[in-house]
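At this stage, I put together one protein's amino acid sequence and its C-alpha cells, which the following lines show:
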Amino acid sequence: MLYRPVKGSTPEVTLFEAVKKGISPDSALYLPVSLPRIPRAFFNNISGMSLQEIGYVCANILFGSDIPADRLKKVIDRTMTFELPFVETAGNMFTLDLTKGPTHNYNDLCAMFLARFVEEYRTSDRLNVVVATSDNVGNAVAQAFCKAAGVTTYVVFPAGSLSNRRFNELIDYGPNVVPVEVGGAFTDCQNLVREVILDREIQESATTLLANSSNVAILLPRVVYFFYAYARLAALGRPLENVVIATPTENLGNLTAAVIARKMGMPVSRFIALLQNDTQDASDMVNESRLTALLSDENDEIKIYSPETHPLVDDEICITMLTDDPAEHDQAVQRQRSRAVKHRIVRIAPSAAAMKRVMLTR
C-alpha cells in the first residue's frame, strides 16, 4: 500500500518509507492512499476474538500487502502482551482501560508496535529515535526502545512539563535514552524535532526515526483500541445500533484513529471529542491536518460533536478510553526515587541547530 502526504505535492511512498521518514520532505503527515474495509464476517465473529486476534486482523488489513503474514503475526504477538480491561462505568457507558502497559498510558501499545516493527525490519546497525513529548508518549517510546542494541532514543520535552513520575522514569531507562530538556514550549519541541528529522547531515550520520503520532506506525495501531472495545461490547450482548465513541483528544491522534476505524467499517453512529486542552491549543495539534483530510469526503456522514452541545440520548451506548492512570503515579514515583539513579539531562535552547549538535556529538 502507498502512503500520501495530506498536504503538499511530494510523491507517495511505501509503508517502510512512511515509517522511516515519519513526515514528508515538506513536513506533511502521511495517510494510506485508501483505507481498506474489513469484511462484514469479521463483525459477526468479533465478540469471541482476543486482543491479539483483533490486532492481527486490523494489522493485516492495513499492513498485510507489505508485510508477510508470519512476520506481521510475530510483531503483533510481541506487541499486545497486556490486557485492556473493558468495564461499565455507568448506565450505557463503558470504558476501555489503556493504562495496563509498562508506562501505564495509552501510547504503550503503539510505541511497542513501532519498536517491534523496527526490530523486525531495520537494516542499519545504528538508529536514532526522536520523540517530542509533554508528558506521556516520550516515556512509552523510551521504554519500548531502551534495550534495543544500537538504538539511541532522544526524548525532547519542554522544561517543567513532565510530572515527577515521568521525569523519574525517564532518567532511569539507561544510557541509550537521552532526555533533552528544551527552554521553550511544546510547539518548540515539535518544530525542532521535525527540522532535525529532515536534516540531511543528521540522516547521513545515522538512520533517524520520528516516533511521535505523526508516524503512521504509531497512529494506525491505535485503531485496534476501537475494534477491541466494540468486540467487548458485543461480547456483553449489548445493542450495537447506536454506538458512540467518546475519546480524549490530547493531540487529536485518538480521534483520528477512531475515524479511521469507522472508515474501515466499524459501525459507529457518531463521535464525541473530549478536548483536554483549550480550543486554541487543540487547533494547533499535530494530527489536525490528517483528521481534516479524513473528514473532507463530501459523501462521508462522520460527525464529531462536543459533549456539551450533544449529550448522550437514551438509546445510545458510549465507549470512552482511560488513557492515563493517576493511581499508578505515586507508586511509580516512589519506585523510581528509591533507585536514586543519576543520568545527565541535556538542556538546550529551543533551536534545531542545538538539537542537531546534541545528536552529532554523541
Q: What stands out?
A: Residues 239 and 305 are 22 Å apart (CA to CA).
